[in-house]
Design brief:
Radius of gyration of chain A: 27 Å
Shape of chain A: globular
CATH class of the largest domain in chain A: Mainly Alpha
Helix content of chain B: 10-25%
Order of helices and strands of chain A: EHHHHHHHHHHHHHHHHHHHHHHHHHHH
Largest interface: A-B, 35 and 40 residues
CATH topology of the largest domain in chain A: MetI-like fold
CATH superfamily of the largest domain in chain A: MetI-like
Distance between the termini of chain A: 55 Å
Order of helices and strands of chain B: EEEHEEEEHHHEHEHEEHHEEEEEEEEEE
Distance between the termini of chain B: 40 Å
Structural class of chain A: mainly alpha
Oligomer: heterodimer
Number of domains of chain B: 2
CATH architecture of the largest domain in chain A: Orthogonal Bundle
Helix content of chain A: 55-70%
Strand content of chain B: 35-45%
Strand content of chain A: under 5%
Number of domains of chain A: 2
Strand order of the largest sheet of chain B: 7-8-9-3-10-11
Number of strands of chain B: 21
CATH superfamily of the largest domain in chain B: P-loop containing nucleotide triphosphate hydrolases
Largest sheet of chain B: 6 strands, mixed
């Protein structure tokens, strides 16, 4: 070792060795990425959450009308006392909470029954036409969650809303009872028929991954059929079922569309609709208290789930296929089951869509004579009689703008979410075991526990004023993109991590050894290898954003109107046929989008769900 | 053109686990050094530190005269600047690139002219006898072929140092034998200093010019295969190397150059040793006689396992059990009385407490 040359390190030559080591740590791609992601998430998740809580415990300008001596900005528990105690507490919080819980529990159970049974039929029996059933089963999921509620209204409404008769009254000659038209029963049924897809996807994936040999082993040891089902199959599927329960329960707890359409006419308020009412009447701080109640509930649910399953991964399901699946012979039940499934799918897909479509051709709602058929709602010129003087949806500039806004929002959100997913996945997988990666993973998970409507509420608190370098974003399109991207963070990090896990770390290291820099490694190795995951994430996010309502309902303004919020506005104005026409346009865009994106190799809805 | 590698006081921790504990070793230019040890001994970590894929928590690494890593000076060259090639255990061929792209990637990064790249890809494929596979995707080839391409990919960018991380462990036994011979040949032709990681002692013994045996992050012995086999520096190395395993017999020094093995005594150099010792005897260094030999210990044949070219015999005397290897098919019968004599020149004496070889 005659002479020692030290490799030139131009940047850090003058630095001390420990600061050089720090600099090198900082310049590691996963560290740098983690830090950038953390800053982003602090801004988009933690600060808004803090502002929400802060606003709920301080006097707000709006309170001056009732409490003239209050000092705006000072600490107070006034909002909590008002919202959580006495008669007002019961009206504003406890009754809606009770309703939310009823609806959430009811629809979760119903969805579990439907989804679980359907999954078993498709995966584990010799039911004919299983492939088609499988494909149709996920259709309700890509439709907006309140589509069924809207269709329900067309069929079952009585004179309580709008004063026109529904199809039921036309056919039966008398109006349906109110409990069937509005309130918890239809809300539960409609939500269940939308969210059973979670159970269907999770349980069928779990069933597929169970090696029948496990069951056959039990069989050989002389265990009875029911015992095998109870002791072997059920425990193996349990994580999937619990995941479905958590997802459905927390989604329905925070859902707005269905309860708004089917609950309001009979003043059946859930927390989400009550929250929006408070915002509309200017009592933001009160709404924030409700949002906090929702968040606390979500946290409790998820904690319970973790206790039961033991890991945070519980909401993921077991992957892997290719096992020998032992099929149960249905025997004589085969054809009965097949007919039942066909009827079910017609009931939840064809009939609702047919009803919506038919209603858009009725000039006057509730008049079922052929002479009442019209294209007025689609291509009619504006006149003073119908739809508050607006033209048919296809000639309506507001609708075209809303459609464009929706596509733009969904496209941008899907792009950024998928991109963030890969970057988050890289930062988390590459940094596995370091505190930084853990923090990033945890923070990215936070939006998961915040129900959509509460997340929207947070953003009101945050972006109604200027904050640091960020201007007041309320009312801008950018805010909608930001809120949608942030709400999707848990999904992006989850699907990003699973996409990155499939890319062995050696593949990137081989690039490192070959002398490729970070950018070359990303461009030539990591991006191409995760393209399938990227497209799946894109597809999934595009669809969910397209039909997202709870999240953005508090944040849209006439200028940033979206198709989803537009339907709600029409419904609230009593222009039901216009609302239904817009829903159909929305579904059309989603289906076309699904088709186009689905063409790309390796992307699928299932993968997008992180399965 | 060949280069040396010097590792000084290298330490690496993963949380509380010490993966490398103050490891120092010197790899001579042109040599083929094998890092050998059971899984978790730190051999792969050491290789990854040399490659620059891990930053150690202390120590220095030189490649040739260049300081590529120094904890104290805060220096760590990125892997691409260390002029080395690495073959991964699972080959790490990029699945979305054809063979030719896999091989030219590093050369494109170095911005070599196209003609030169094509020439090198062709030559390297020829060297591993894989001409004509340019347009295959990795998944369209067998494991053995992927292995060859992984080698060719490294050869193509002509690094000064070859690093290999258990490259043969995913191949079947037959292929592994073939590849051992070819790897040795490739190293000879390419004249690149090589560090090779394996847990397979046969690979280590057959291919290396030097073997470094490691255990729990600590370097146990760095020596030629011959010396590693015949003079293991401690009981761990003795026990780890050799198949069938070495016989390690507990004994007591019972006089000048005499060790009592319990039931019989053997004369051997005891140097300054006293008290409890362990005697290491390779199975092939024991001779069997079916006729009584006065000085020899009497055993009985407990089990006889012929395997063609040689036979392994388990001999017992009370609680004492010895493994013996003889050439050819053994004619012994079960429970037959046998008399054993040791090849005294080959015995090694270890201190019972420290486990270290006693040489003086």
């Amino acid at each position: 070792m005659s002479e020692i040359t030290i490799a030139p390190q131009p940047f850090s030559e003058r630095l001390t060795s420990s600061s050089r080591r720090f600099f090198r740590w900082l310049m590691r791609p996963q560290v740098l990425l983690s830090l950038v992601m953390l800053i982003f998430m602090v801004y988009m998740v933690l600060i808004p959450l803090y502002r929400l809580i802060a606003d709920s415990v301080t006097w707000q300008p709006h309170d001056l009308t009732t409490h003239p001596d209050a000092v705006v900005g000072q600490l107070t528990i006034f909002h909590y006392i008002r919202m959580l105690t006495g008669v007002l507490g019961s009206i504003y919080t406890y009754t809606p909470l009770q309703h939310s819980l009823t609806v959430a529990l009811g629809s979760t159970l119903l969805a579990l029954l439907i989804g679980g049974a359907l999954a078993w039929l498709v995966v584990r029996t010799d039911l004919p036409g299983r492939k088609l059933i499988n494909q149709l089963a996920v259709l309700p999921y890509i439709m907006p969650s309140w589509t069924l509620a809207q269709a329900w209204l067309v069929f079952f409404k009585n004179r309580l809303s709008g004063g026109t008769p529904g199809v039921f009254e036309f056919l039966a000659g008398q109006p349906p009872p109110s409990w069937l038209s509005y309130g918890p029963v239809p809300i539960i049924i409609c939500s269940a028929l939308h969210y059973y897809t979670f159970f269907f996807l999770f349980v069928s994936a779990a069933l597929m991954s169970i090696d029948s040999n496990l069951e056959e082993a039990g069989d050989l040891m002389g265990a009875s059929r029911s015992r095998i089902l109870r002791k072997i199959t059920f425990p193996l599927v349990l994580p999937a079922i619990l995941s479905g329960i958590i997802m459905t329960f927390s989604k329905v707890m925070g859902s707005f569309g269905g309860p708004n359409i089917l609950g309001i006419p009979v003043r059946y308020y859930v927390v989400a609709t009550m929250l929006r009412g408070s915002i509309a009447s200017g009592d933001q701080a009160d709404a924030f208290v409700l949002a906090i109640v929702l968040i606390l509930f979500a946290i409790v649910t998820i904690t319970l789930n973790q206790r039961m399953i033991g890991t945070r991964k519980s909401y993921e399901t077991i992957g892997g296929r290719g096992f020998v699946a032992h099929e149960t012979k249905l025997g004589r039940m085969k054809h009965i089951m097949q007919i039942a499934v066909i009827i079910f799918q017609i009931l939840v897909i064809a009939i609702p869509l047919g009803l919506l479509l038919y209603s858009t051709f009725m000039l006057i709602d509730g008049n079922y004579s052929l002479s009442n058929l019209t294209l007025q709602h689609w291509i009619g010129q504006p006149n003073t009689v119908y739809n508050h003087g607006t033209s048919g949806v296809l000639l309506n500039h507001d609708i075209w703008r809303a459609a464009w806004n929706s596509i733009k929002l969904s496209g941008l959100t899907a792009f950024f979410t998928a991109l963030l997913g890969i970057l988050l996945g890289y930062a988390i997988v590459k940094g596995r075991g370091t505190w930084l990666a853990k923090v990033v993973e945890q923070v990215a998970f936070i939006p998961y526990v915040i129900p959509g409507i509460a997340f929207g509420a947070i953003y009101i608190a945050m972006f109604s004023q200027k904050l640091g370098p960020l201007p007041a974003l309320y009312g801008t399109f950018a805010l909608l993109v930001i809120v949608s991207v942030s709400k999707h963070l848990p999904y992006s990090s989850r699907s990003g991590v699973s996409a990155m896990m499939q890319v062995g770390h050696e593949l990137e290291e081989a690039g490192q050894v070959a002398g490729a820099n970070v950018w070359q490694r990303f461009r030539r190795i990591i991006f191409p290898l995760t393209a399938g995951g990227f497209m799946s994430g894109f597809l999934m996010t595009f669809i969910t954003t397209m039909r997202e309502l709870s999240l953005i309902i508090l944040l849209v303004t006439p200028k940033t109107q979206l198709l989803a919020s537009q339907t709600m506005q029409y419904t609230e104005n009593g222009d039901g046929q216009m609302a239904n026409a817009v829903i159909l346009i929305l579904i059309f865009i989603v289906v076309v989008g699904n088709f186009i994106i689905g063409r790309f190799k390796g992307s699928s809805l299932q993968k997008g769900l992180g399965m | 053109m060949s280069t040396s590698i010097t590792i000084k006081n290298l330490t690496k921790r993963f949380g509380k686990v010490v993966a490398l504990d103050n490891v120092s070793l010197n790899v001579e230019p042109d040599s083929f050094l094998t890092l050998l040890g059971p899984s978790g001994c730190g051999k792969t970590t050491l290789l990854r530190c040399v490659a620059g894929l891990e930053d150690p928590d202390g120590g220095e690494i030189y490649i040739g005269n260049e300081l590529v890593f120094s904890h104290a000076k805060g220096i760590s060259l990125p892997p691409g600047k260390r002029d080395l090639g690495l073959v991964f255990q699972n080959y790490a061929l990029w699945p979305h690139m054809k063979v030719s792209k896999n091989m030219s990637f590093a050369l494109e990064v170095q911005k070599l002219p196209r003609a030169e790249i094509n020439k090198r890809v062709k030559e390297s494929l020829a060297e591993v006898k894989m001409q004509g596979y340019e347009d295959r995707y990795p998944r369209e080839m067998s494991g053995g072929q992927q292995q060859r391409i992984a080698l060719a990919r490294m050869l193509a960018y002509q690094p000064k140092v070859f690093l290999m991380d258990e490259p043969l462990s995913n191949l079947d036994a037959r292929l592994r034998m073939d590849m051992r011979a070819e790897l040795k040949r490739l190293h000879h032709v390419a004249e690149a200093t090589t560090i090779y990681v394996t847990h397979d002692q046969v690979e280590a013994l057959t291919m290396s010019s030097q073997i470094a045996v490691m255990k729990e992050g600590v370097l146990q012995q760095l020596d030629t295969p011959d010396r590693i086999y015949h003079f293991p520096a401690n009981l761990f190395v003795a026990d780890f190397i050799g198949n069938p395993k070495i016989n390690l017999l507990d004994g007591v020094v019972s006089g000048k150059n005499l060790v009592d093995l319990g039931g019989f005594k053997i004369p051997m150099a005891t140097y300054t040793a006293s008290g409890k010792v362990v005697v290491g005897v390779r199975p092939e260094d024991i001779a069997i006689s079916t006729k009584r030999i006065p000085e020899a210990a009497e055993f009985s044949a407990y089990s006889i396992q012929p395997s063609g070219a040689d036979s392994t015999i388990l001999a017992r005397k009370g609680d004492l059990e010895l493994t013996i290897k003889v050439m050819g098919i053994s004619p012994l019968k079960m429970d037959e009385k046998i008399w054993l004599t040791f090849n005294l020149d080959t015995l090694n004496l270890y201190d019972k407490e420290s486990g270290n070889l006693i040489t003086a």
